[in-house]
Amino acid sequence: MRKTLPTSLPKLLPPPPPSYEIRDIPGKGKGVVALRDIAMGEMVIIERPIFLRPLMITAGLMLQLPKLVMERMDPRDRASFFALSNVKDPDVSQFWGIIGTNAFELEMKEGVGRYGAVFPECSRLNHSCGPNTTRTWNLPLFALIVQASRNIRAGEEITTWYEELTETHTDRRSDLERKYKFKCACGYCTNTSPTSDHERSYAISEKAGHDFIHLYSAIYQAGIPIQIARQRATDLLQYLVRVLATITKEGVEGRSSESYYYSLMNIYGLLGDKEKLREWGFKAILMFPSNKSDWENKIDEWIDWMRDPEKNFPNWAMLRE
């Protein structure tokens, strides 16, 4: 497991004045509230954990950890740690109750090295089934990045998610009540339609991505007349708009929306619409996950497309009438 953790950490840049504050939220305890308007794509918090542990540890280490933390943790971090909420049953120690209430699961390397991490401020984020942020673990920086997934108004609570958002609202509410001792009363749980669970689950699923690839590749089918290819592109646009409407209605813009923005940029490039290509390309760049460092060259390519689509976009206006 040690090989999955860095031996030294780069310095984080000094943070700008915070766009939020931690305050009491009626019925929720502490929470994070926006001090000003925050734009979609803006980074809200970049923070390193004050406590990190493998999810799978021995019983012996579980007994030793509280004492080790008390002895070795920086006093300020220790104060932040023990100031966090604990909603677990009384028979669970305060130490493990705080971890069980506040830790986010992180993956140090794809498929291996799963850890639970506690943060002084990220762990103050409350749950919503339609969160207005996304969170990304950036291993090179060894930091959790919380980013606005849609515009957040001054005075609005900044939220994350505790349970998988593809679950039905009934399952989400049940799991939240069992694990965190509250029944979710957000509008995404209480104002559901008979089809909302299915629509939400599909919109942020791998199947939706596979369906898109199938529809997109059909545009390039060898030998088809340009009119048919144009109609298929129009059908794909309608499909993407429907899925994005569901994502917006369900408040899950932080889950896969960047891939839909990128796809719309591509379709509008084929149709020769500069304004729309730039609109959706800008959104795709804003929301692309910060841990995808291997995609930096791709983003540079998208910027070139937006700067001069006629010159730089492959197959520019191929389907324009």
Describe this structure in words.
This protein is α+β, with helices and mostly antiparallel strands and 321 residues long. It folds into two domains: 2-161, SET domain (Beta-clip-like); 196-312. The chain has twelve helices and ten strands. The chain has helices at residues 59-72, 75-82, 94-102, 169-180, 187-190, 196-203, 206-219, 226-250, 257-270, 274-287, 296-307, 309-312; strands spanning 20-25, 29-34, 43-47, 51-54, 104-109, 112-118, 126-127, 133-138, 143-148, 157-160. The protein has a four-stranded mixed β-sheet with strand order 1-2-10-7, with no helix packed on it. Helix 8 (226-250) packs antiparallel against helix 9 (257-270). The protein starts with 19 loop residues before the first strand and ends in a 9-residue tail after the last helix. The mean pLDDT is 89.
Structurally, the number of domains stands at 2
**CATH class of the largest domain, please?**
Mainly Beta
* CATH homologous superfamily annotation of the largest domain: SET domain
The string of secondary-structure elements, in order, is EEEEHHHEEEEEEHHHHHHHHH
Q: Measured on Cα atoms, how large is the radius of gyration?
A: 22 Å
* CATH 2nd-level architecture of the largest domain: Beta Complex
Question: How far apart lie the N and C ends?
Answer: 57 Å
The count of helical stretches stands at 12
- Strand proportion: 15-25%
CATH topology of the largest domain: Beta-clip-like
Strand order of the largest sheet: 1-2-10-7
The average pLDDT is 89
Q: Helix amount, in percent?
A: 40-55%
Largest sheet: 4 strands, mixed
Gross geometry:
elongated
- Poorly predicted spans: none
List how many beta strands DSSP finds.
10
Helices and strands: which structural class? Answer: alpha+beta
InterPro entries: SET_dom (IPR001214), SET_dom_sf (IPR046341), SET_domain_protein (IPR053185)
Protein name: SET domain-containing protein
Pfam families: SET
Organism: Sphaerobolus stellatus (strain SS14)
